Amino acid sequence: MSRATQHELDMRMLMASAPFRRFLLRIANHAGIWIPTAGAEQSLLSREGRRSLGLDILREAAVGLPHGTIEHVLVAILSEATPKETTDADP
Fold first, then answer.
1. Which of 18, 25, 19, 10 minimizes the C-alpha distance to 58?
2. Most buried among 11, 28, 68, 83, by the most CB within 10 A?
């Protein structure tokens, strides 16, 4: 089995896990990928570095999805942030 194939299998297994998707959501939030970075101020350059690393992590996770794009990873992890509907125990 080639290294790439093992990597793909690993990412498929991880992306199928709700706890891993919640972990990726925390990474995305901490990396600030939702915050635009523009300009050349030192603080913005630092923020862009964090954002870039966050996107690199999401790109790695994308290997585990059928349509391996960052956008598909974002859809998967944002679905973990949406409260699930549950039936009430009492009628």
1. 25
2. 28
Count Cα atoms within 13 angstroms, Cβ side, for 20: 15
Instruction: Give the residue from 52, 53, 66 showing the smallest Cα distance to 11.
Output: 66
pLDDT in tens, 20-76: 999 999 999 999 888 876 665 667 777 888 889 999 999 999 999 888 898 999 998
Long-range contacts of 3-9 (CB under 8 A, 24+ apart): 7/63, 8/63, 8/64
Distance of CA 5 to the CA centre of its chain: 21
What is the 8-class DSSP label of residue 91? Answer: -
Helix, strand or coil, per DSSP, at residue 52: helix
Distance CA 56, CA 5 (A): 19
In this prediction the pTM is: 0.72
